[in-house]
Design a protein that fits this description.
- With 132 residues, the chain is mainly alpha-helical.
- It has one domain (4-131).
- Helix content is 92%, strand content 0%.
- It contains 4 helices and no strands.
- The protein has helices at residues 4-28, 32-61, 63-72, 75-131.
- Helix 1 (4-28) runs antiparallel to helix 4 (75-131) and helix 2 (32-61) runs antiparallel to helix 4.
- The longest helix has 57 residues, at 75-131.
- The protein is rod-shaped and about 90 Å long.
Length: 132
């Protein structure tokens, strides 16, 4: 006899495993600190590239004003402003990265916990069936 609850549970579990399960298993292979460190490192690389692109576009767009400011001001003042802008940009990017990936890690572990609980229920269904 087909147990409808067991079939429904197995269907939901397979849908999860097919859609989000593989990604969740890759994420859960890391400790939270290691996962965040990896994502922050990748974000620093991406943020640095983005800052360089933004700075290059800004420099090309305002090239004349930039050249006048180089002649009127010292280069150390300009370099200091660029360093401060980079530090602020990087800090904001890292803050967003930590918030996003902390939430993603926690949601992943919640989903995996539900999946493992479903496995336990499925095991109980089979044990009950064997007893009968």
């Amino acid at each position: 006899m087909i147990n409808e609850q067991r079939v429904s549970l197995m269907t939901r579990m397979e849908i999860y495993r097919k859609h989000k399960g593989r990604r969740d298993e890759r994420i859960s292979a890391y400790f939270m600190g290691d996962y965040l460190a990896k994502q922050v490192l990748l974000s620093v690389i991406c943020a640095s590239a983005a800052f360089l692109l933004i700075a290059a576009v800004y420099a090309l767009y305002n090239f004349e004003d930039l050249m006048l400011s180089v002649y009127n001001f010292s280069l150390s003042g300009l370099a200091g402003r660029i360093a401060i802008a980079y530090a602020l940009f990087l800090a904001a990017y890292i803050a967003v990265t930590v918030i996003v990936y902390t939430g993603r890690y926690r949601r992943t572990h919640r989903r995996l916990e539900h999946y493992y609980n479903a496995l336990d229920r499925l095991s109980e269904y089979y044990e009950r069936e064997e007893e009968l």
